[in-house]
Amino acid sequence: MIGEVVQERVTTGIAAAATTNVLWLPYIQDGASLALTVLGIVWLAVQIYYKVWRGK
């Protein structure tokens, strides 16, 4: 019985988030773009370190 209530609330929350997708999607796209840029720069720095300073 309690599990059914929790499942119903989770399902309702996901449905509500999906219907408001237009409101929060641009923020996620901006954040993901920034995170991937930073991740790319860090990966490049790691590659440079291993190629130049470690001589591999």
Strand content: under 5%
Helix content: over 70%
Shape designation = elongated
The number of helical runs is: 2
* Quaternary structure: single chain
Distance between the termini: 60 Å
Mean pLDDT: 81
Instruction: Give the class from helix and strand content and strand pairing.
Output: mainly alpha
Whole-number radius of gyration?
A: 21 Å
Regions with little confidence, pLDDT below 50 for 5+ residues: none
Instruction: Count the E strands.
Output: 0
User: Can you write the helix and strand succession as a string?
Assistant: HH
Largest sheet, in brief, is: none
Structure characteristics:
0% strand; 56 residues; mainly alpha
Short description:
The chain has 56 residues and is mainly α.
